[in-house]
Automatic annotation (TrEMBL), chain A:
It comes from the Bacteria. Keywords: Cell membrane, Membrane, Transmembrane, Transmembrane helix. The chain crosses the membrane at residues 31-50, 62-83, 89-106, 113-136, 142-160, 181-207, 236-258, 270-303, 315-332. It is found in: Cell membrane. This is Sugar ABC transporter permease YjfF. NCBIfam families: PRK11618.1. It comes from Agromyces agglutinans. Signal peptide: none annotated.
Length: 341, 562
């Protein structure tokens, strides 16, 4: 746990020294919400550790990653979009579409080596179409991605109404393999993939002009244009990235469930958005970190775990907690940005 | 020329730009010298921004030659101009508050290594640039945490990183306070020493005289002249900007005088309809006192940006005052919305006829009944027949052409649109009518009609606050004139044989000796001097010399009352 916090701080301070007083950091719209989330995550983990035997273990933490690898990838893609001030409602449906394409193609004997790249290309192209719609026709991201959501969900039913299980040996192998970390701890390949995605996203966002332009877009599109930044290209590209991440998340999800089903991942786009917002990214764009979004996913996960450990509570309590958290975080963001104005 | 100077870095000769129906620039010459601050002066519509846009490649030119450092250039876009060394800092800071100062300076030009941004070098470069401007701020701090002035300076740092030979500052000081302006000027001076040619546009004369070496005056798209700041008096400059022959004052004014003289002799006990004490809004207008009596026309004189409109907007409830008191019709009022102003029978007719005035897509009739309908509430629609009557009577009274209530307002000429707008406000029978530049950009005939209308409205007891860039017009119509300069009222004069020269002197710098009395006065120090000496009575008609063009207007007013 502490390692995650440490990573987060390094990520947060890339290109900046925190230094100048904890107070100013805590009240900055840039770092404040992320730090609050980090503290929250630690607190929930500690509370769980005190209340329940066996909670405070490395494997419980690693299982957060194992269970939520797909959501981490989704949240990374969503972070790009939200950082520009946009939104992508299509990701849940695209995850479902990816699982069902994977399952049905594997069922008809395609090799996973073809199926997975194909899915990634298809979902990226869908993202491209959405991005172009938003940029060229000036459609609101909300509407454009809503349309994409219905399209993707509808396509699922065209492919199959029923759940298709995945039996391809290579796929199953990827799904069940456990990579031992020593000390009885282990993770799945999905976790590795998710962490690689996170790493790449951090580098892109903080060390490339594309990444900085993403932040610039969230700050002010108009200013970005006057400053001579490639506004149009970047705006389209974030939806391609989100599409790609949705496809990849779909693949990871099908590792996790070993099936493809039209009705799967309903509402997952909202989980991803919640994770990004709880992770400290401003919904209006311009402020936020990918590592914050990862932290957001972990907060969602740890609440879920806590409720599982509690045993007597229905899993719907997760939703109630998340709802409350979201409210708190959105108000926090409002306060922080208002103070800065 | 006037001083031994090196070759100009920018030379524009015979620049003409034509927009459909308008000659925006007509054979204008303009030059800039390295190490010199040059100011472009002129009132609204003089062609300043068009000239800047021609230089920065936003507009193509129809005729003329632009040379930069001796080479003829023709830019097809701002990016090209920037690459050639012409950088522009706009009035609004166009930077990104969510990123660091360093990034804002370097974004899009960050040094890179192996394809990734080299933050160390980026920050070092930014720090160097800031140091070059003597700016001691942390390049790693968020831009949004700094004041507007610092942000403006950061924008300048970004601009000069592109090896600027020419730096254009378009109204950089409009949102800065005195200390911030001083900071900006310090930077401008140091850039000047480095040999950068700076184009400085500002409406503040004091600032122009403080920082600029050379002035070019434009008027109506034509060049009036180029002057060295040291060699032109403020009053001459203002005269050249406004461009009036100050010899003969026309007949109408004489009539106004006589009416004022008559007013002067009257009982002074009549209370003002609206009276402001220390009313102010930060960044818009300094605390001012102003009284407007029933039947009185109070004119506001001052250059663009002097606070004319800002003052009017406070009285009209468009902007909220943040200090001072306003008494309307004997009751102290805080106007928060235009709606509240309208309820107190104060109507504000905006200078932005198209964007804040008429509704283009609606008919003349719809436009005329709009305010009245809003005032009644939307659940009590004005009967169609009544609408028709209203529209017809105003079309007649104001001589709106075409005389068709169903014509779309967008198809009307500017003057007729203005009349429709006037009719809209007259329909709610205001007691105070605020007219912000009602005659701008309309033809002579319509102008005269509107002036006459203002006359007769005041005759019938309405208070009018009249704003116009044309001093003659203000002098002609007003019983009293408040002169504004740099966002404060510097004089409040009874229009008793006032001369344009006196007004000009006051506008140019409060030091002039206006012969109407009431020289420059501090608007903060209690009740204004001249305001106390005669709140005039409802004006006596300007004699039989004035044929009343609007015999019906009074009928309309009473008819429209709720």
């Amino acid at each position: 746990m502490s390692s995650i916090q440490a990573t987060d701080l390094t990520g947060a301070s890339l290109g900046t020294r925190v230094g100048s007083g904890i107070r100013s950091v805590l009240t900055s719209p840039k770092y404040g919400p992320v730090l609050v989330t980090a503290v929250l995550f630690a607190a929930v983990f500690v509370v769980g550790g005190i209340r329940y035997e066996g909670f405070f273990s490395g494997q419980v933490f690693l299982n957060l990653l194992v269970d939520n690898a797909y959501l981490i990838v989704l949240a990374v893609g969503m972070s790009f979009v939200i950082l520009t001030g946009g939104i992508d409602l299509s990701v849940g449906a695209v995850v479902a579409l990816s699982t069902i394409i994977a399952a049905s193609l594997l069922q008809s004997g395609w090799s996973p080596g073809v199926v997975i790249p194909l899915i990634l290309v298809l979902t990226s192209v869908l993202g491209l179409a959405v991005g172009l719609m938003i940029h060229v026709f000036q459609v609101q991201p909300f509407i454009a991605t809503l349309a994409a959501m219905f399209l993707a969900r509808g396509l699922c039913y065209v492919i199959s109404k029923d759940s298709i299980s995945i039996t391809d040996p290579a796929f199953v192998a990827l799904a069940v393999t456990r990579i031992p970390l020593g000390g009885g701890l282990s993770i799945t390949p999905s976790v590795i993939i998710a962490l690689v995605v996170v790493l790449v996203a951090v580098v892109v966002l903080h060390y490339t002009r594309l990444g900085r332009t993403v932040y610039a877009l969230g700050g002010s599109e108009q200013s970005g244009r006057l400053m001579g930044l490639p506004v149009a290209r970047t705006k389209v590209l974030v939806y391609v990235i989100s599409g790609f991440c949705s496809g990849l998340a779909g693949v990871l999800f099908s590792f996790y469930t070993l099936s493809g089903y039209s009705l799967t991942a309903v509402g997952t786009e909202l989980d991803a958005i919640a994770a990004v917002v709880i992770g400290g990214t401003l919904l209006t764009g311009g402020y936020g970190f990918v590592l914050g979004s990862v932290l957001g996913v972990l907060v969602l996960g740890v609440i879920q775990t806590l409720i599982t450990f509690e045993g007597t509570l229905s899993s719907w309590w997760t939703k109630i907690f998340i709802g409350g958290l979201l409210l708190v975080f959105i108000i926090l963001q409002k306060v922080l940005t208002a103070r800065r104005r | 020329m006037t001083q031994p100077s090196p070759a100009p870095v920018v030379e524009m000769r015979g620049i003409s730009i034509e927009f459909p129906g308008v000659k925006a620039l007509d054979g204008v010459d303009f030059r800039m010298f390295p190490g010199e601050v040059h100011s472009l002066m002129g009132e609204n519509g003089a062609g300043k921004s068009t000239l800047i846009k021609a230089l920065t490649g936003v507009y193509g030119i129809d005729a003329g030659v632009i040379t930069l450092a001796g080479d003829e250039v023709s830019f097809t876009g701002p990016a090209q101009a920037q690459a050639a060394g012409i950088s522009t800092v706009y009035q609004e800071v166009n930077l990104l508050p969510n990123l660091t100062v360093a990034e804002n300076i370097m974004l899009g030009r960050e040094p890179r290594r192996f394809g990734v941004v080299d933050w160390r070098r980026t920050r070092r470069r930014a720090a160097e640039l800031l140091e070059g401007l003597n700016l001691e701020i942390d390049p790693n701090s968020l831009l949004g945490d700094h004041s507007l002035a610092i942000q403006q300076l950061v924008a300048i740092a970004r601009a000069i990183d592109v090896q600027a030979k020419v730096l254009i500052l378009d109204e950089p000081t409009s949102s800065l306070d005195a200390d911030e302006v001083a900071e900006l000027f310090r930077v401008i001076r140091s850039l000047k020493e480095q040999g950068v040619a700076i184009l400085f546009v500002s409406h503040f004369l004091d600032q122009v005289y403080e920082i600029c070496d050379r002035l070019t005056v434009l008027r109506n798209g034509k060049l009036v002249g180029e002057y060295l700041t040291d060699e032109i008096l403020r009053i001459d400059l203002v005269q050249k900007m406004i461009g009036k022959e100050l010899t003969a004052l026309d007949e109408l004014e004489q009539r106004a005088r006589s009416s004022v003289a008559a007013v002067e002799g009257q009982d002074v006990s009549d209370p003002a309809f609206a009276s402001a004490r220390g009313l102010a809004r930060r960044g818009a207008i300094a605390p001012f006192d102003l009284d407007i009596a029933p039947g009185e026309v109070v004119g506001l004189a001052g250059l663009l940006g002097s606070g004319r409109t800002e003052l009017a907007r406070l009285l009209g409830g468009i902007d909220r005052a943040d200090q001072g008191t306003l008494v309307i019709d004997g009751r102290q009022t805080k106007l928060r919305t235009p709606r509240q102003a309208i309820n107190r029978r104060v109507a504000y007719s905006s200078e932005n006829r198209r964007s804040e005035g008429v509704v283009d897509e609606l008919t003349v009739r719809d436009n005329i009944v709009l305010a009245l309908q809003a005032d009644r509430g939307w659940f009590r629609p004005i009967p169609k027949k009544r609408q028709e009557e209203l529209a017809q009577s105003y079309i007649q009274a104001l001589n709106i052409r075409p005389a068709n209530p169903d014509a779309l307002v967008r198809n009307l000429s500017g003057g007729n649109q203005q009349k429709v707008l006037l009719a809209r406000w007259l329909a709610i029978a205001p007691h105070l009518l605020i007219l912000d530049e009602p005659t701008r950009g309309i033809d002579i005939g319509a102008k005269a009609e509107i002036q006459k209308l203002v006359y007769s409205l005041a005759e019938n007891g309405m208070s009018v606050l009249f704003i116009s860039a044309e001093l003659e017009e203000v002098l002609r119509l007003s019983h009293r004139i408040a002169v504004l300069r740099d966002r404060r009222i510097v004089a409040d004069l009874v229009n008793d044989d006032l001369q344009v020269e006196a007004l000009l002197a006051l506008i140019a710098d409060g030091g002039g000796d206006g012969d109407g009395g009431g020289g420059p006065e501090d608007p903060d120090d209690g009740p204004g001097g001249a305001t106390t000496d005669a709140p005039p009575e409802p004006s006596v008609p300007p004699g039989g010399t004035e044929p009343d063009p609007t015999p019906d207007s009074t009928i309309d007013l009473s008819g429209a009352r709720r």
